[in-house]
Amino acid sequence: MRTRRSNRTKKYTLDKYDFLSSGDEREQTPKRRKTVDDNDDNFEAPAEERSAAEEDEDEDEEDVQMNDDSASEVNARERPSRQRPRSTKPPRPSYPGEMEVTGYLDIELIPPEGQHKGYVGPYERGMRGKALARTLYGPQPERIEMAHTLLERWSGWTLYPPKVPQGEDEPTDKGFWISGGLEKEARLAKQWYEQVRKGLPSDDVWSELSPEESVMYRFPQLSMPVLTGPHEEQQEVLMEPGTSYPLSQSNIPFDQDEDEDKVECGWMLDVGGLVLGMDWAPRRDKNPRQLLALAVIPQSDQDFYNYEEESVKPGFQQQGIVQIWEFKSTKTDEGFTRTSKEPAMLRKSLCLDYGRARRVKWSPSCNHIAVLSSDGNVYVADAGDLDDEEGGAYYKLEKPFAVLNLIDEYSIKATAIAWVNCNRMAVGYSDGSIALWSIYPQRLLSRHPVHHSDIIDMVSGYPTLPNIIASIPVGGTARVIDLQAPSYETTEAQRPLVHTQPGLLAYSDHLLGFLSIYPSASALNTIIGFLHHAHFPVCRRVFTGDSFLTCLAVGRLHPFLLIGATDGSLWCLNAQTEVFSNRHESTDKIRVFQHEHRPGHLFPPDSPAAARGVCRILHGFTVDRNRNSKPEAKLSAKKGKKLRAKEPAEVAVEEGEGEEDDDEAGDLTDPFRATLYEALTRITAIEWNPNLDHGSWAAVAMGSGLVRVIDLGLEKYPEA
């Protein structure tokens, strides 16, 4: 008895997809239903329609197979089957319960070349001037008017920020976008501190070390000659760890300057090691004493040595040092604030035995200081009374206020920190996650997977956008996340980057955006870009350097940008003017100074420079042109013409980011940008002063161990 062919071909089990099946086996399976294309893009018919169609097919196949011999059975598949015209029924919406998986869909292959990420929004690269201000700060007319006020406030100052007399209040200096927000935060911080003070350790937070106990925390007292002053008449100054000199406008010690019209312009001090991070202490009142905290490590930590042999020794790199220096200011007859003639004082040295101090951050509203240690933990403690203590004392941390660590994940270390407010801190970790911590009570509030590699730099949008966190990984894309809605309020830059240098990310409260290394995987990337917090994927070029960049800082009371490089150069420019400049408008920048260092092994053993080498600081550079004028995009290739692979410079031009002149050294593939300099020549850290009347002060740390505190403000005398 012969069974129906339809029964022989029916299957009542769901076969698994076999990746090793051949094409012949798939061809032998007859098609009993419509193809995927005929079923309206993989949407199957309802169950009633499918059952009716199967009955019609069974009747047709039964009529064909009756009284067939074996020969006809062999050729049955070659003969077309008779089918009745099927009555069409109106389509019925399918429900989730009626859906059935029929197979796998073919996914288009990702092209090997080309951009796979894009941005769709109102922000375009071609926008300039007022149109750009409306897009970034609109659509409310009030905010657009506030943006125009900022543009007018700083448009006339292209190189250095202007000073404001102490008797005047500039509403566009600090907290411009949040009227009364800073005063409210200070009030809440005071209330919070009063509530938690009872639970804090009252004494034994810091223990003073004796001279014998502080030996392991002291740097070797080795001198280093420094050449400074005018290029034609430089003078030699002998520097030792812990010494400082007030400087005149000629960049020589104030006492040695014989000019009758000399003016104080800052200090030069020697910290004895490499400065990895520093931060100014916030002052709510107009205090003439300004405090600067510096995380310092010995220069030998970055020398060549056998790590396997040294790391097994007891106490290997366990001593962390944070130096706190004090600088005083004076008031002129015109009401402007200037640096004092008195030398800077090393107020105290904070010592930790948990590891090297990598980063240091003052709390924005309290006297708390956070230190990121090399053991992967963050230590928060009260800095103590810094006004009435004698200078030069060493204090060891005994009872920190809070220790932010992941106890269950010992291999995950903290790599970046950023204050959100007086009781909240964001911490970036080596696994690419960002955690939000409560300081007191100490709690891990949330933790979010943001990157796939170590977070090398992170900054918050304090004070206007404190919950907005921007971060840069070692490899991947720069991302921004809102800690209030981290599941959906997040985005990233369009291009991946490879980045190993921290300190190249800062937040500008005037621009409501971030200034960072340009998102690029090029090995010759020396570009700084601006990323608005609401249009983060689109980056606008602000600065192009001649050598590799090491650090940057943007003003807290103004939009001026300082950039350090490996060749020892310190550049200054107005970032707001550069962002809102016209397409062909020329902007300016200036090299503030250039630092050079020669190591000691290049000199004879009996030379004064044999111990730590010698330094030279050059000043008096002229105004330079910022090479970021954007030409029109090139016309696309004609139809039918064979396309060739585009060079990186051509891609930048088509995106509206090309150079204006071909003869300028602005080519993205210029090999001279990869020129190597002495390791201790580089600028290691930069920080602007955030306090009123002192916003034009900038601290600049160099690899040789020198730190310059410069007053870059221009005195705008009132009209008579």
TrEMBL record:
GO terms for cellular component: nucleus; transcription factor TFIIIC complex. Residues 1-11 have a biased composition (Basic residues). Residues 54-66, 652-667 have a biased composition (Acidic residues). It is found in: Nucleus. Residues 12-30 have a biased composition (Basic and acidic residues). Residues 1-99, 629-669 are annotated as: Disordered. Transmembrane segments: none annotated. Keywords: Nucleus, Transcription. GO terms for biological process: transcription by RNA polymerase III. This is Uncharacterized protein. It comes from Trichoderma gamsii.
